[in-house]
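For the sake of transparency, this paper describes our internal protein records without simplification. The record that follows is passed on verbatim for readers who wish to inspect the format:
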Amino acid sequence: MERYQNRGGNSGIVAFAITEDSITLKFKDGWHYIYNAVRPGQTDVTLMKAMAKSGSGLHAFINRKIQNNYFHKFH
């Protein structure tokens, strides 16, 4: 996984991994969430990938739009 830059300084996301059709996020509490073309959909996943790479806005986007619409959660 790649370290999330957290340019805003207040994100709960610490790392991410990107594949062709998904993104997996690791949060401070140790939980990992997979987002893909099924949930929440490819359009949102594409936006999430761009935010992860830029290190900004991802946690706010999840809180505002995605919420619990993830494909899989694991510890």
Notes: The mean pLDDT is 97. The longest helix spans residues 42-54.
